[in-house]
Amino acid sequence: MRSLLLCLCVLLISPLAQAERLKDIASIAGVRSNQLIGYGLVVGLDGSGDQTSQTPFTVQTFNNMLTQFGITVPPGTRIQMRNVAAVAIHADLPPFARPGQNIDITVSSIGNSKSLRGGSLLMTPLKGIDGEIYAIAQGNLVVGGFGAEGADGSRITVNVPSVGRIPGGATVERAVESPFATGSHLVFNLNRPDFTTAKRVVDQINNTFGPDVAQAQDGGSISVRAPLDPNQRVDYMSMVENLQIEQGNAAAKVIINSRTGTIVIGQDVRVQPAAVTHGGLTVTISENIQVNQPNAPFTDGVTTITPSSQINIEEGDSRMFVFNPGVSLDEIVRAVNQVGAAPGDLMAILEALKQAGALNADLVVI
After folding, report:
1. Could you report the average pLDDT of every consecutive run of 10 residues in the chain (366 residues)?
2. What does pTM read for this prediction?
3. For every residue of 256-270, which 3-state class applies, written as one string?
4. Helices (H) and strands (E) in the chain, counts
5. Contact at 8 Å (CB) between 321 and 338?
6. Which CATH number applies to 183-246?
7. Start-end ranges of CATH 3.30.1360 in the chain?
8. Alpha-carbon distance 138 to 123, whole Å?
């Protein structure tokens, strides 16, 4: 029993290899989503639509729509459309999407409409970068935000009422050709290119399916031989993408966000022998104005103003601490915490260590 508990303790203390599925660390080249965009009208708003005097394109779009239905607006007619808003629609067309399937869309006001709540999007074509129509959007909006305004001009807004979504609001009309079913090889692109990870992916695939099935093209791409039959290819890729891969450790980096004071130190960051001292020197200068009046009133004496400056210098309690060779992340954090360094102080210490050549990591300031 004692030996079993000892073994369990060793397992809990020892670092475990973090293996992940290949599908979580890589993507198949060509199997990707495509962005769609469209322009249309939202109607049925409760007086929160565009102000036509400031958004003439809304009136023009509305007139064009009426023309398609055989209705001609007399020239010079001033139209007030408080219940209509011009909007932009965007969506992602997922890979392997086929005609007849539905996709979610996001609708955003591009005029001065205050809220799209309660509105309905009229039929709008969604186009790709090539100008072709790939989906048709229409439906009732779901808006998470709302706003209220008083007669005195005061208002309150919760979330963003000028943006809404329509789940399944677009119907796919055209499929995007995918290279998945063509060619004798498929390429896996690593989400984080790394030569060690690429080698481990190649070794794992070849050990499982046979030699020379996978070949590394570079540190971020692995070419895998696949069956030509589409059904067999799907079964085969299902097995490949579920292989467990242990990723290589990323390069040692220290990330510093100077705006928020956030500092992230990677696990492989090491410090060479160095001694560090960091103390604060505070200089305070205060100006006091003194007014001197003549002793006797109604005399030729002149009132004078004499500035008086007071300078106070305070030096913080600075301590020196030593980094031994090969100091780990845990020891760096512990040493800095012992001297009570703030995030700004830690930034200065890390930058000084990098300049001294004692920090074996890339210092990235964002």
Report:
1. 37 53 92 94 89 83 87 77 91 94 95 89 95 96 71 60 93 91 91 93 94 93 93 93 90 82 79 68 53 64 65 55 62 67 73 79 83
2. 0.69
3. EECCCCEEEECCCCE
4. 7, 23
5. yes
6. 3.30.1360
7. 183-246
8. 5
